[in-house]
Design brief:
824 residues, Rossmann fold, Alpha-Beta Plaits, globular
Amino acid sequence: MINIDEFIFKLENPQVYTGREINVARKEISPGRMDDFIHVCLVFPDKYEIGMSHYGLIILYHLLNNMKHVNAERCFLPGKPSIQAFKQYSVPLFSLENKIPLKNFDIIGFSLLAEMNYTNVLQVLDLAGIPLRTRERRETFPIIAAGGISTVNPEPLREFIDVFGIGDGEALFPDIIEVVSEAKEKKLSRNDVLKRLDAIESLYVPFLYPPVKRGRFYVPDLESGKIKKRVIKTIEDFPEHDRVIVPLVNVVFNRLNVEIARGCPQNCRFCQAKSYYAPYRSRPLEQNIRQIAHGLRETGFGAFSLSTLSTGDYPDLQELLELIPDVIALAPGVKFSLSSLRPSTLSHQLLSTIALFKRTGITIVPEAGTQRLRNVINKNVTDEEIFQAVELTLRNKWQKIKIYFMLGLPNETMEDIDGIVRLIRKMVEMSRGARQKIKIHASFSPFVPKPQTPLQWAPRENFDNILEKARHIKEQLRPIKRFLDLDFHIPYNSVVETLLARGDYRVGELLLAAFQKGEIFSAWDQDFNFPVWEGLMHGSDHDYDVFLQEIPMDEPLPWDFLEVNFRKEYLQEEYCKALAGEPTPTCGEMACNDCKGCIYGMKRREPLAAEVLNQKIRELKQEIAALQGKSPGPEPAAYNKIRIFYEKTGDFIFFSQLSMMQYIERLIRRAGIAFKCSKGFTPRIKISSLPALPVFAAGLEEVVELFVDVSLKENEILDLLNKSALPEGFKFKNVIVCNDVPPLSRDIHLIGYEIIVKELPQRIHEISQYLEDTDFASYSGDRLILKIDYSNRGQERFTSIYRAIDPEKKNTRYLTRTHVRFKS
């Protein structure tokens, strides 16, 4: 079998397999000493670019690695070209940090955030060489665990997952570790371990509870409500970790995410997140401010966002906004963003604060086009509030509004569809009336009824009807389409999503069959193959339509044995109110004793007296000011132009030029060095580099040029850059001030290269035709030494030389840039 270090060269986007991120936790695992740790692999069943945006995985990663006897590592599903490489070379899927094969871990923990990723779960197990079904796994295989919002109905995955954790991972994982640690010490059998895990509150081991037919569905053979979700009572008891892992590539959310609250006090009847993340818990103001200030410094991120389901409901939002500009003054060019806001929570202060960093756009989520239908789904927003939000956006000179709707909601009529049209037309009229160019992005998604919500019994509308509604909206908005960006999600996905969300073990059989026919990455339109699913459904003995139709409220449900938040009686009452179009107050508007709908209730924070609150703000401002000595602070009076020399070898040869520049910028930010940004709408660090090296090429004397605070001396800058323990293969070597010399790109005189070329003597004539008299070339055996004069189209000539040597760029690993010489 091919060596893993050699195998990485065969993979798409190889840099993500290096485990060389800033703030990664890599524990030394001595050969033959695997038993020194409980080994946990946290798996996100999608690509690195998606999974590294999942905040929950990062929380658990640091929680587990803070336990001395636990080694937690990460794994993501490779893209399709890399999946083929794993199969072709018979390499089992491995973790990023220590390249341990997944089948050698004690626990594999999947984060399940979307049903359409279920085939990806099977692909991960298959690539790891782990049998797909629980009953087929021998004693030596790891415990396969899963948690996350999709576990509110675990039955479609019951054959494939050993144990489901229902609730907050911070509360569940320590108990899981304790059981597995004891079992490992006592050498307990696999079945005994699973039985002990099942005895823990909020854990569910499906093979112990075979499904039985009750009504139209198969349900686990245990009493309803037996398994209750576990939560941490307050998130302030689990302070956020400053040293968040910083991704190596541009991920979906490429910024510091600060969780200011968990849960949501709104009561939207379609929202599964409301139930799963309940109760609503907010983090204290001072914790959030410290996390922003220290998190930006420890990560080097150039952007951050406030993360929660409903930002506008955070109780200290105004005070937080007042302090954010002081925090941002600590770091140059930082951008700030928010998740979607209810229109009623928008304010001039909020928009003004965000505008200090970048005027991007606001997001409004009415979901439905009429007040009648919003009452059905209990969406707490009115047309008046939407138009007030648009007016405020226009007044603050913002350029984009995003607005989201669902199609196929219960009791939806064409009048509701026309309401969407009227709403969008009015928004366009307002922007034209204000003589302001603004783009309105409207997104439309099919409604999918989800378990543990009041609409869990509702039918999924036929996709032909949804397509007709989408066609009607497009036609009605055609006259103003130049002001709009319309995005319609294909409705065929919603058929499969509904099956996976509301199914029982029979849907698991469909899932396995689809995977065996090559269906993976089903969440992505370009990869989703509906004919595969449709053919399997029609060719099956099972009637899958029962999962798509309206479900009678007295019917036992596959997920009834779980009590996630809402009591079933409350959900039934809310569904009846939905059908009647009756709204329900939010959790913030009514007392828990008057509702008694959920098992946790909502702990209210009493507002602080004005004097106490003002004192707290003064103290936080003093604390922020004290950080000035450790941070870049306000813009310097003057800058020096400097050149930083560094070396990249080892794993850093896998970095693309873009990733390398992003990595260096973040190291500079972490060092607290004030640098010059470009002017204009989107400030960026002013940095330039040598001509880009191809991936796999090493650089012994790489250079970047930028402008930094004039008060910093050369040796001081070098010490600041090297004060953090940098990974093997990357080293800052020197810093020089170069104010009176031409820009880097015009100052290069000569660059040296060393290339290993097979059959070099026979090919030397191909090279010589591109050399100038001022160039130098020599060779010994297969080793070619080049010194290219860059005064005269040097990069162009080097590119021609290298193309002659390696036309398909298959051997860039044998290329090293050795040195650079400048004219000045």
